[in-house]
Amino acid sequence: MKLIEFQGKDLFRRVGIPTPRGVYATTAADVKKFIEQNPGSWVLKSQVLMGGRGKAGGIKFADDAAQGETLAKELIGKHLRNEQNPEGETVRSLLVEEKVAIESEAYVSIAIDRDARKPIIMVSAQGGMDVEEVAEHDPDAIAKYWVDPAIGFSPFEARRLAFAAKLPAGYLRAFPKIVGGLYELFMDYGANLVEINPLVLTKDGSVIASDAKVDLDDNALYKHPDIQEWNKATPTDEDQVAALAIGLGMFNYKKFADDPAEPSKTVGTIANGAGLGMGTMDAVKNAGGGAANFLDIGGGAQADLVKKSYNLVTSDPRVKAMFINIFGGITRGDQVAMGIVEALKGNDVRKVPMVIRLTGTNAEEGRKILGDAGFFPVETMDEGAAKAVALANGGK
Ligand code: GDP
Ligand code: MN
Q: Separation of 197 CA from ligand 2 center, angstroms?
């Protein structure tokens, strides 16, 4: 199963590979609205499976909303073609992404080498162009490494590959984590190919996956039923666009419609991990309340994302109390707490009362920090759900 760019990038984010901020759009009106709300320079990228979209005229740059609208109208419905894809494809949707200032473009991929029966990692400093072309004219420009799956891949090999491919020095810090993530994706999702071309070094020194090509082995899809669904549904609805806009995966946020047969949906939820997110909603239900949404903030729960997620969930006027459920694990609870306090400092956190369940290392110190800052810290999920439901109902 070949994935479209925005889907590939969703997987990239799951394994910690940085991607540009962006939204998925199916109409020119949505593009216009998005750029109006987020002024700046944006790239409009045709979401088709074929490669070489740049040369085929499927990638455009917009500096304001009006230009974005015009270009989106031009692209949606356009039939793209190039030498490698003479049949071409019709554009039905776009990825609107923050335009980055490019310092350098590199290439990195992992594929199965059938002869060696091992994954092969290929890296080149000549990104942005067709790798076959590079292979033909300058085969030495591609550094290769065959991974022994029994041993796995080490950051040391990533650094060695970066040197062998003569990547500019600006790549070195970020490179091992990116290739490590790519290898994790490759193995965990049973891929035939994962490719970042270009892997961009920006003028301000960050390294970011500007393109994504992912081909998954159909026989391994059973391990990830959510991805099987991608065949049937593309994220056209508002929730997915909203999730992508704040840097979450497109399926990480879901707002629930009111149901007269159920309690009013007045409790906003945020959890780290999809399973915990669902457990959180169940706990709210068991406590006699209604969860207004599902939001999986992913691992780590970084302060900036907590803030954006909080703003997204509380933008729903039905939400009268928040329940944030963070499983700390090895993450130190006091650090998570300080992150949350810091993140929500500028926000009107008393817009709705906020219950936070924190477990893990140093959770007790964490809860003290949260309590002092005016939040409602709790220890267990059920306790938190009961508290949030009571607060949402106007109680204490
Ligand atoms: P492909 O042609 O289908 O492989 O699409 P890519 O996503 O690789 O984009 C093609 C080219 O567009 C890239 O190699 C870049 O040169 C250019 N491009 C894409 N995104 C950006 C961006 O954010 N900033 C700039 N300056 N160029 C970009
Ligand atoms: Mn590309």
A: 4
